[in-house]
Amino acid sequence: MKRSIAGGLIALAFSIASLSMVAVRTAWPHWDVVAVLLTGYIIPVSMAYKYVRKRPGDVCPASAFRALVRVFCVLIIFWVAVGMIILPGLDADTRLIAVSLFVVTVYAHSLPFAVFPKVGIGLMALNLLPLALQLTFLGETSVIAFGLSGIVLIACEVGLFSWTYLTDINRLRKRRTDTRAEVNEPDMSQIGFRRRLIYILHAGATPAVMLQITASFFMVLTLRVPEYEGLLWSWFLAYLSVQTLRTAGFLLHLENPERFRLRTWRTLFGIGVVANQLGWYALLVLFYEIMTGFSLGVVSGTLIVIAVISTMGLSGDRLLLYLNSVMCVVPPAIILFSGEDLWSSISLGMLGSISFLLIVENIHQSTVYSMKGRLLQKLSEFRSKEMEVLNVELTNARESLTEVNANLEQQIEERTHELNYQATHDMLTGLGNRYYFSRKVSEALKEQTDEQSTFAVYLLDLDRFKEVNDGLGHLAGDHVLRAIAERIADACVDEVICARWGGDEFVILERRDVSEIEVKEFATQLVSELRKPIELDSGPVSLGASVGIALCPDHGTSAEQLLEHADIAVYRAKSRKTGVSVYDDKWGYEASERLQLVQSLGYAIEHNDIEIAFQPFVSVDDGRLTGFEALARWHDNVRNVAISPGTFIPLAEESGLMPAMGRMILRKVCETLMKEAPDTDLRVAVNISVMQLRQHDFVDDVVSTLAAVNMPANRLELELTESVFAGDVLQIRQILSTLRNLGVRISIDDFGTGYSSISYLRDFPLDTLKIDQSFVAGLRNGGEGLFSSIVSLAHGLKLSVIVEGVENRHDLDKVLSLGGEEIQGYFFARPIESGKLGDWLDKHSTRPFSMKRRHLSVAIDNKTGHSG
């Protein structure tokens, strides 16, 4: 709207000037109509002033803009009508002056709408087109150039809008619609300022190019002579080509300023400026002969106008500004010097040149300062926006802080309660933790006043939990722990407090007065409840539990003593498989004995003091010897006593010595077999624990052992108990498959005493199933059906059967009648020491045992294991 005020006032001033000039030269009488038209400018000026001063609340900006456009259209139409009436009656000189003033008035009418190019170009066309057409077809040669130049000027302005402005507007719209676009901080460095100058050179040069194209077209029409007409139009086309290339370069820079370095862009722009001036020089050189005084004046004036116009566009670059100005001034100076008074012309020319150059320098300095000022203003606006954003953020932060402060006390209270809960409770199960339970035991001790009253501390340890956790994964283990914790919590009522001690251990405090019988009953019921199956995604799983109990004050008067003695009791219950055990003072000695035993066992393993005994396998078909089972034996040299395998094997597993002991036993067994029976096909079966299978190098140990003693893999059989099915089934199956592919035989020992399933027997890579001796003993009490079912199951799974525990002729006859491929037991031989294996083989390797069923009593040589 401010532009509307300025444009209206400028148009009014030049309209008055042009009408006054016409009135003075022609005495035009219609001043009443002119007065009405001049008064009409009050309408747009007052509308714009009122809108700028105080925008009315009920006025829409779009409506005010449309009203202003309509008022200007009406004014322009009236002025065009007046011009079409006046121009035909004017002489050539007056018409030239009137047209010049009218062009300025046209630009004044378009000035308010410079930021709306569609409207501005429309108003310009409405101004120029009717009068340009009238001058073109007026019939006078002197004004045709003016008319056609007006048409070309409109075409150039439309081209400028279509080519340049639309590109900028589309880019601006794209930035506005792009929500990711950010306002960048102006670059105030020297290189940033130079980049800005180069950008302004290219951005502001296109309008000057369009005006020079119009001027060149006007010069062609002005100088048009039949003999030179072809050359004139050729010059115009060449000049037009230069300007087209320059405009393309401008647009290329605006589209991608990073394509070339700043020096390259400046050099290309300077080449365009020089080429433009050389084009005008070519006009003077080629057509100087046909130029009259009027033509020379027009050319000089045109060059001066070009110098002035281009000065505005080149004002930011001193070198290009001086170069262009000098090249524009030279032709008019030459024309001026061609006069008669040479020295006066030279002095006048030097004075004018110096004055012009001083003006140019001042323009350059003003432009640079102005540009720096605009950059500083943009920087200030950028900082201001940042401060506004920061202020908004600070305001929001202050409001949030106020809200947080209002709720801080409640949040602190809730957090304190949560921290207290976390400090005293186990996060997995929700039960109390070690700290919580110890504190409750200490409180119970402080509250105990009667020395005769008794309370109990229970320590509960789960059986086989490690197998579930390692075999099925930690998620399954966590689920089991939560289920166990829930069952324990359900059992803890009244004065009973329960907690998780750590890992798979739980503790219970019964604060009421209880007897030893009552605590055993409670613990037994709890163990029975915990043995119930727990449903997992992979199927149900059952765990056992061992409970150790310590009573206060009989077994301790401090929390540490009671928990320590409960721990000893739970170990007692676990080792003796009693499920529940109440602490006894004499167990302290047993614990010390156990520690010494572990140390002795480690020493024995380290020094290869574990001995091997061999018990033979006999074929059912022909009584031939087929192999041996290797059995570990240990004689403690420190105490000079023999330790039972039922004692030192579990001890090795609990203390972590099992992998080392198993590796040593495997090596000694293979060495003994290859020493005593190197050229036979007898095999040896070695018991392997789950702990050994979990060793990552177990397969490598087996392979290296076989290679070291030069023993074929098919002469080695690995016996596994059913506990392997509770471990990591996939990993164990993969290990066994690798060994079986090497030729090693795999058998399941003590079948029927664990918790295997038929699916595991089917899926695992097995060769043999060993029926436990308990089923052979059951044959004496009518267990033939169960025994036959196991044999049929094994044969159905394509497994051979070894029956162990055959101790007499009656057991042998029963087994022979029910089936099986091999038999093992005292009836044939007791375990043979490795040192006596060679002699035993010499006696029995060539004498098969008799497998004929007998119905009468026969003599049996139990000492040698050979039937007569």
Overview of the molecule:
The structure is a single chain. By secondary structure, the chain is an alpha/beta fold. The protein folds into 4 domains: 1-175, no CATH class; 186-379; 434-585, Reverse transcriptase/Diguanylate cyclase domain (Alpha-Beta Plaits), CATH 3.30.70; 596-867, EAL domain (TIM Barrel, Alpha-Beta Barrel), CATH 3.20.20. It is 64% helix and 12% strand. The chain contains 30 helices and 19 strands. Strands 8-9-11-12-13-14-15-16 form an 8-stranded mixed β-barrel, surrounded by 4 helices. Helix 25 links the parallel strand 12 (716-720) and strand 13. Helix 7 (141-177) packs antiparallel against helix 9 and helix 22 runs parallel beside helix 24. The radius of gyration is 57 Å and the shape is elongated. The model is unreliable at 340-352 and 855-868 (pLDDT under 50).
Give the helix tally: 30
Total beta-strand segments: 19
The amount of beta strand, in percent, is 5-15%
pLDDT averaged residue by residue:
77
First CA to last CA: what distance?
A: 132 Å
Sheet bearing the most strands, described?
Answer: 8 strands, mixed, barrel
- Structural class assignment: alpha/beta
Number of domains: 4
Percent of residues in helices comes to: 55-70%
Runs with pLDDT <50, length 5+? 340-352, 855-868
